[in-house]
Give the backbone structure.
Amino acid sequence: MFRSISLSTSAMRFEVNSSRIVHRLIETAEAHDGPTCQDEPISIEVPITLRRRAIGLRIVISSPYTQPEPDRTLVDLVARAHVFLSRLIGASAINTSRIAERFGMDRADVGRILPLAFLSPAALEAILTGRQPPPLNARQLARADLSSIWSEQETSLL
C-alpha cells in the first residue's frame, strides 16, 4: 500500500498506491478478482514542526484535520496561578511566603507564577486548547515579563 514514507524537518511525506487502497477498502468480489492496474503513486505531504521535549524531540503535525493536545505543564502552571490567587484573596487570605511554604516551593517562584492568573482571555484559551505557539513552554511562560495590557500579552505570547 505504501511505496515510501519520508520525514524531513518540515514535513512528513507518504507515497501510496491508490489502487491498493481501493482494493483494501472495497470488499467486493469484483475488487478482489478485478485486474490490477499499475497506477502512479499519490503523494500526501503533511507539514510538521519539531518541538524539543526534555531530552528528545516531538513531531507536531500541523494539519487542519488534527486537534492539538493541550500541554499539561502549561495548563497546570496556569491552574496553579489561579490557586495561588484564590489563596491570596480568599476568606482565609495568606501571603506569598505561606503559599510557598504550603506548596513546597520558593517564594520567588510563587511571585513568578502568580501573574499567570491574569492572562488575557485569548492567551488563556490558546493554552487550554493547545493552540499556543510550539516554542512556548512552561519555563518560558513562568519567566515571561507579562504586560497587564491583554493585547500586549497576546503579541508577546501568541
